[in-house]
Amino acid sequence: MSNFDETETIYVRELGIDDIAPIYHLGEGLFTSDLYPYLYRTWDEWEVIGLYNTDPEYCLVAETDGELAGFILGTIITKASWTYGYILWLGVSPRFQRRGVADKLVDKVVARMIEDGARFMLVDTDPTNTSALKFFNRKGFGNIRQHIFLSMNLSKHEYYGRLIDYEHQKAERAGYRRSRPTIRSRKPDSVANEVVLNPLVNESQTTDDQSPI
Ligand SMILES: CC(C)(COP(=O)(O)OP(=O)(O)OC[C@H]1O[C@@H](n2cnc3c(N)ncnc32)[C@H](O)[C@@H]1OP(=O)(O)O)[C@@H](O)C(=O)NCCC(=O)NCCS
Questions:
Q1: Which atom of ligand 1 lies closest to the CA of 103?
Q2: In CATH, which superfamily holds the domain spanning 11-139?
Q3: Ligand 1-lining residues (CB < 6 angstroms)
Q4: How confident is the model over 127-173, as pLDDT tens digits?
């Protein structure tokens, strides 16, 4: 049961630098691997940081009494003569759900997108996400078209699995090489300077079968 006070006012404002971590953590709690595996995989701190950087006018937070209630992250896509508003992420803290927070966030972002020329809106989510689907349907989104995601575990693939093994071996060999400057620095100054000035020549002289220190 929510202990949200109905009289508390929800404010919507643009995202600030201090909102990045709280938004990321709220999303972590909402886009979970058991419920929405695709949302879980694609949600990371770079989603928040990147959109804050590229589309700050479409990144909004809802708050009450300084507490984060929800967020929306969107962008604008321009193609031919069309401008699309795209809602990439929307999340409301469970404590504040069913109080009209998402409603306010979407209204505000859509108003901004209309101001910037959008005449069409896009949003996507997991097909099992009934609360979001109900929410978006109620807001006027429709014309559902399913998009299928396929996946593959590369380590288990006959050919790509071998490539992964090869990359591991390469990384190990590079690790051996990286450990060598420690030895070089023990050399007399004149030799050490030569190494610093011409690292590539020295690197190519390192053979793979030299044992790491
Ligand atoms: C979907 C979500 C953003 C809705 O946020 P919200 O602030 O609770 O939504 P609102 O209060 O503005 O809801 C407005 C209407 O949407 C519908 N709705 C919202 N949540 C619902 C739910 N859990 N079950 C059924 N309908 C729901 C209802 O019609 C609701 O009106 P009502 O409360 O008068 O019945 C929120 O549930 C959430 O954060 N979910 C997890 C993250 C997610 O799925 N994000 C969207 C995809 S990126």
A1: 12
A2: Gcn5-related N-acetyltransferase (GNAT) (3.40.630.30)
A3: 30, 89-92, 97-103, 125, 129, 131-132, 134-135, 138
A4: 999 999 999 999 999 999 998 889 999 999 999 999 999 999 999 99
Give distance in angstroms: CA of 139 to centre of ligand 1.
10
Domain positions in the chain are 11-139, 154-204
Q: What is the pTM of this model?
A: 0.80
Cβ pair 206, 180 in contact under 8 A: yes
Distances in Å between the alpha carbon of 69 and those of 22, 34, 95, 146, 206? 10, 23, 8, 30, 57
